[in-house]
Amino acid sequence: MNKITGNAVIVRTLFNNRYTVQYYQREYNWGRKQIEELIEDLTNEFFEFYQVGDSQRDVMRYGNYFLGPIILTNDNAIIDGQQRLSSITLLLIYLNNLQKNSTYSKVNIDNLIYSEMYGQKTFCINVPEREPCLEGLFDNGDYDITNETSESVINLYNRYKDIEEIFPDELKGEALPVFIEWLIDNVVFIEIRTDSEQDAHKVFVTMNDRGLRLTPTEMLKGYLLSEIDDDNTRNKANDLWKAKVLKLKEIEKDGDADFIKNWLRAQYAESIREGKRDAENKDFEIIGTTFHKWVRENKSIMQLNKSSDFERFVLKDFNTFSDLYIRLKQYSSSFDKEYEYVFYNADRGFTLQYQIILASIAPSDTMDIINKKIKLVSCFIDQFIAVRVFNFKTVDYSSIRYTVFNITKKIRRKSVNELVSILKDYIKAMEYTLEGIDGFYLNQFTRRYMLHILSRMTYYLEQNCGINSSFANYVNRQQKNPYEIEHIWADDYTQGNHQVDFATEEEFKNFRNKFGGLLILPRDKNRSLQDMEYTKKVVKYDSENLLARTLNVNCYRNNPSFLRFIQNANLPFQPYAQFTKAELIERQKLYKEICKKIWSLDLLEEISNS
């Protein structure tokens, strides 16, 4: 093997080059989970140092964050690390777009994303098939994947959209330039370079095949089994553990560790780190990193004192909670009407729901009780998210981790009747209510939730009118022609009555984003109708989903199931030949009434009595 070099390199230096990817390694295959973990790790580390009021210069005293090794040849071919480098490229593009609308100082990172010659952009990782997608994302944050055949390009687009949804709101203001400076100057890779591709592959094999260490899951298993005296029972526990871990890993790569963290936090964690610099890690954080050690040190709190306790912990508790976690993951990815709220919460990226639901379960609960608790708690979480979002309050992990931890402890192993009372009281005591819908509109924050909300309304209406409807289809971003948010008003101040209703074009544009002026349509229909005036649009709406059709007078003719439902539900639907400012305000009030039924507190009582 020829000369090998290894150096620590920051993002600013590493991304100031252009890299190629060998044809047999060109697939970009990260999923949402990997992006979530990357954003969570980076932002959590950043908040270890950042304090409100810090400037870009303060980053000089911040600590570093290590993102692992990458293996390159000296002619800049990537042998290992392109998933991370591609994902950081997407993050840099997103941050750059975020800066465009920011009133705070901007950090010039264009040269870390692309170089330009003769008007042609070449991105950091130079794979020709990716260029149009990356250019679209860089220019306007979007790219049409309707006819796209490349799996890598589709994945790049979808992961960018994940970043849009996941990136925490508290980093979008004055902290944004500070975060960008920290990302490019304090996030570190180890760059390993070789003279030849052959040598690079040898390094890759050596790093991945030798010195494998036990995972925390394996170390926890070893500890638990070592405390079981009887050989036959120990073997039985070992077989059960292996079988469940295999199923958990089939769901997702690190499913076993994710389950154990959620389970232990839900059932046993009593403390969480204070939100200040240099605060000491507590139960919540320690379980998240070294749960095998935490169990050893807290065995008495967990009532693990003798062999029979360890037997029960593995053969009963681990068995029950792992099966439950697997079910929750299945409900999250595949819509099941009976457990619909788990799917709704997952669609909004609320991963903390697993911890909260698991907290409510007692190991002695019957299956009927467990099922009822899943429905109750997931319905509560759905209402909790809705109230916050309608009032422009974030549900990002870093913002509500303390809130979620307190909810976890409050409902831990409570009975169904206790749960109903606690959950209803919690919603009633929230600082905000669904009255916030009066001022709800589409902006940078609500964009990530608006498709979900409009899809819920459309699905609710169609379902209650006997129409075969699919919420999962409405929010499926992976399909060829996904649904998008439709503005009832075209973006044209000169159309209709707008110049009479609004003194300025800016006032019109702001009002156009009001909740009551929005629908969902398939992408191709949405784009074909964009510039059309309302009197022509409303004719087209008559062949679309029911929420859109309700604007057209034809929806109120020979449609007994719809008319019966809106009368019984006391929903003031009506058609509109014209759609002016007054009609939009009226429609906003209608949307509020629909939402109050979808997110009604009465649902908790209905579930408990079912």
From TrEMBL:
InterPro entries: GmrSD_C, GmrSD_N
Signal peptide annotation: none
Pfam families named among the record's database cross-references: GmrSD_C, GmrSD_N
Domain GmrSD restriction endonucleases N-terminal, first and last residues per copy: 13-224
Domain GmrSD restriction endonucleases C-terminal span(s) in chain numbering: 449-590
Name listed for the protein in its UniProt record: DUF262 domain-containing protein
Species this chain originates from: Geobacillus icigianus
